[in-house]
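Design review, sub-item: ligand-bound model
Attendees: FS, YL, KQ
YL presented the inputs for the thymidine-5'-diphosphate complex:
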Amino acid sequence: MLVTLEGIDGSGKTSAWNHLRETRSGPLTFTREPTDSWYGDAVRRSIGADEADSLAELFLFTADHAAHLSETIRPALERDEVVISDRYSDSRYAYQGAAIADRIERPVEYIMGIHQPFTRPPDATIYLDVDPATGARRSGTTNKLEGQEFLGHVAQNYERLIDREPDRFVRIDATADQSSVFEAVDEALDRILDA
Ligand code: TYD
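KQ shared the predicted structure:
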């Protein structure tokens, strides 16, 4: 079973993932994108470069995803573990869907098409829902992907993904205080694992 955590910057998704990592035990693999590999290093280098080419950046993120699948995700699923990933393919559809929108028609569909032949879709996705103004304020807008206007576009893309596959997503109100968010995430994961 593959469960992913998604949300815009400042949604508190990484804190929720850390909470799960600290409180859950059993045959679980906790992982994240961008990964800690050298592919992930290349991605972080690109994120930090304001002038980086947006299409090149999409392919760096996608390369990192391909390596993540072969090196971490698929082996863990073969061991019958539950995999919990902080960001996954939806981050590309939502973020790079916004970043390349000025260059490519139907960008979200284009990026989904690139992934389709090799990716392993998530079984369930916990979406931490926060408005772009709060997300930008919380994340402090330290790079080009964290500005309020850009996050607004990313959030719209996430909504389109949720509309396409409402059964895969569990939406959690991430504007609430942290303990309520953690509680809601715990409940959501319990329900997902029971199903
Ligand atoms: P992440 O490490 O989750 O950010 P944070 O610093 O909030 O923990 O991700 C780094 C940035 O990369 C974040 O702004 C989201 C963005 N991103 C994409 O644009 N596309 C992707 O496919 C992924 C995985 C992340």
